[in-house]
């Protein structure tokens, strides 16, 4: 019982630490962005920061962004371009894709819910 309580409290503190690090990272990045103009073309890491995609250590994570960009054409890939060998994302196109992707997911979740209910 005592070890379960210790494990539970430890998990709570780890979660608080994660959220604190992520919040501090966002504040730090926002402070930097206030002094730097935001580019129209973003690297995967810049897009992760812009969309606030951070791992538990508060570091921007690009794995989802890269997998979305590499989807087959029939699966609505995240629009991107290459500048030399560097992948870049146009901010406005990425934002539009995110809105459309959220709607696609909403519709798919509704279909699943109806299928389970029926």
Provide a descriptive summary of the structure in words.
The chain is mostly helical. The chain has one domain (2-117). The protein is built from four helices and three strands. It has helices at 2-35, 44-50, 63-69, 91-117, and strands spanning 41-42, 81-83, 86-90. It has a three-stranded antiparallel β-sheet. Strand 2 and strand 3 (86-90) form a beta hairpin. The protein starts with a helix and ends with a helix. The mean pLDDT is 88.
In short:
The protein has 4 helices and 3 strands. It is mostly helical and 118 residues long. A 3-stranded antiparallel β-sheet has the order 1-3-2.
Question: Secondary-structure blueprint of this entry?
Answer:
Layout: H1 2-35, E1 41-42, H2 44-50, H3 63-69, E2 81-83, E3 86-90, H4 91-117
Antiparallel strand pairs: 1-3, 2-3
User: How many domains comprise the coordinates?
Assistant: 1
pLDDT averaged over residues: 88
Beta-strand percent range: 5-15%
Helix proportion: 55-70%
How far apart lie the N and C ends? Answer: 43 Å
Number of helices: 4
* Secondary-structure element pattern, one letter each: HEHHEEH
Major β-sheet strand ordering: 1-3-2
Rg estimate, integer Å: 19 Å
Biggest sheet, open or closed, and with what strands and sense?
3 strands, antiparallel
**Assembly state of the chains shown:** single chain
Structural class: mainly alpha
Outline type:
flat
For the secondary structure, the number of strands is 3
Low-confidence stretches: none
Offer a few descriptive terms.
mainly alpha, 3 strands, 118 residues
